Amino acid sequence: MSSVISASQLTMRFRGCDALNGVDLDIPAGQVFAILGENGAGKTTLIRILTGFQTPTSGTCRVCDLDPVKQALQVRRRVGYVPDNPSLYDWMRVGEIGWFTASFYGDGFLPTYRQQIAHYKIPEDRKIKHLSKGQRAKVALSLALAHDPDLLILDEPTSGLDPRVRRDFLESMIDRAVAGRTVFLSSHQISEVERVADRVAILHHGQLRCCEPIDQLKESMTELTINVEDPLITLPPPPAPASLVCESVDGRQRQMIVRGFQPEMAAVIASATGVKDVQTRRMSLEEIFIAYTREGSDLSEATNNDQVVSGMAATMDDEGALA
């Protein structure tokens, strides 16, 4: 199995809305993969397609080398899934829901589930309807992990968990990746993603803006602060191969978010007419996310090979000047 999840031009259209628009994914085993996006970006739709609960309008995908459209049940046996608002049978007790779910899996499910529940200190004789939001989340996590799935899909998994349990849970995700399992994580908690993810994707209006190792993404993004003499001056875009993601103007100060910026390019920009000085700094994952999802962002969808649309940046001639 070369990839745990692969998708090609995955598209999902609803009436008056394109939830997904040509999404390509390739996620190898043994990684914590995180997908970031605002509400309505298409994250939950993507998860529903991967788990066989939604048939895409077009495109293909495979999960654990299975087709979720034709082999939905087989996919679900290989996957653990925790939605952002787990639906549990309120009339059942904590122990009963484990016993009930164990009937769909092998012999080791129930003992593992009980170990998880004991770890979270939730009494097995307590009814689901009497649990707090955090306790319900722990039960859902225990059910998803008890059969040791090849792929664990989590949609806002730490919602309702206290800080200590959240930290322990996130560390366990890293342990699963080290053991060769794969974690697909959808979260609004960007600081958590930054701590545990190996690879990150940013989904915006149904399009994948980037998908690459998190360290590589952070290394490739630079914020430029340019002070100019005249607020009406027009600056050229950064020289190739750098590309402009977005730009803002505040009087005599310009801020550019640039991908692929090299230190020597600062001197080229500083030499432009009317430029007083240029300052650069690396960006956090949260700042990168905001830049990619900012309205008016110029960068269209990047491929897994880290390609970006051409024509955004000016080229340099043989003498190193802006063309």
UniProtKB/TrEMBL annotation:
The entry's keywords: ATP-binding, Nodulation, Nucleotide-binding, Transport
SUPFAM superfamilies: P-loop containing nucleoside triphosphate hydrolases
Domain ABC transporter: residue ranges: 5-230
Annotated Pfam families: ABC_tran
A GO molecular function held by the record: ATP binding
Gene3D superfamilies, alphabetized: P-loop containing nucleotide triphosphate hydrolases (3.40.50.300)
Superkingdom as given in the UniProt entry: Bacteria
PROSITE patterns, per database record: ABC_TRANSPORTER_1, ABC_TRANSPORTER_2
Family: Belongs to the ABC transporter superfamily.
Name of the molecule in the record: ABC-2 type transport system ATP-binding protein
UniProt organism field: Neorhodopirellula lusitana
